[in-house]
Amino acid sequence: MARYTGPRTKIARKFGEAIFGPDKVLTKKNYPPGQHGINKRRKTSEYGVQLREKQKAKYTYGVLEKQFRNLFEKASRTKGVKGEVLLQLLEARLDNVVFRLGIAPTRAAARQLVLHRHIVVDGKVVNIPSYSVKPGQIIGVREKAKSLEVIADALAGFNHSKYPWLEWDESSKSGKLLHMPERADIPENIKEQLIVELYSK
After folding, report:
1. For 180-192, how does the pLDDT look when each residue is reduced to its tens digit (9 = 90+)?
2. Separation between Cα atoms, residue 1 and residue 144, nearest integer Å
3. How many CB atoms lie within 10 A of CB 135?
4. Across-strand partners of 72?
């Protein structure tokens, strides 16, 4: 399936935020990329601001337009605040849960672990990154993958208590989704109401 594989720093500079994690280049060049990036002072329209927020959410979670639209429609049909439900659905994606549990250092790495069949859900191998994890389900590392260096390095010193909606069992190298996260607990700097306004036009 198609996905963005270009320079990540360029995208982070576009939004002025380290949406893919700590970035040395972003701290040095905290202005948009391109020939006129450092001098750009153009005023952004209301639509432009809303579109930018949607693009930021898509890049942050590694979701394509069609997937994002489908998630928004699902959020619209679900009881609750539309924007918050959308973020909860993004957080419940298997690749994101693997990342949040500290099994992988980035969402891109988590996606790769899932695709390469290193992750199990309730004991069964799931290789679909967009798989929606339900509260109560247990996400773990496949037995023969527990010795992988990328997983061991990611888990070393990871603070598993920073996400209250997840529970981690060190002995079995597995975690459980306790419940859907509250908006205040989701650390991403995304103004979800702008996305709702964009799709509601």
Report:
1. 999 999 999 899 9
2. 27
3. 11
4. none
Q: What is the DSSP string of the chain?
A: -----S-HHHHHHHHTS-TTS--HHHHH--S-SSTTGGG--PPPPHHHHHHHHHHHHHHHHT--HHHHHHHHHHHHHSSS-HHHHHHHHHHTBHHHHHHHTTSSSSHHHHHHHHHTT-EEETTEE---TT-BPPTT-EEEE-GGGTT-HHHHHHHTT--TTS-TTEEEETTTTEEEE-SPPPGGG------HHHHHHHHT-
How far, in Å, CA of 108 to CA of 120, rounded? 17
Rounded distance between C-alpha atoms, residue 104 and residue 154, angstroms: 5
pLDDT value, residue 58: 92
**Encoded tokens for 138:** 């247990």
Please give the structure tokens belonging to residue 56: 């930021």
Determine the angle formed by the axes of helices 65-77 and 46-61, rounding to 10 degrees: 100
Residue 105 CB neighbour total at 10 angstroms: 16
Q: What is the pLDDT of residues 47-78, one digit of tens each?
A: 988 999 999 999 899 999 999 999 999 999 99
Q: Rounded distance, CA 119 to CA 146, Å?
A: 10
Q: Name, in order, each residue with C-beta under 8 angstroms of 11's C-beta and a sequence gap of 6 or more.
A: 4, 19, 20, 59
**Span 147-163, pLDDT tens digits:** 899 999 999 989 988 99
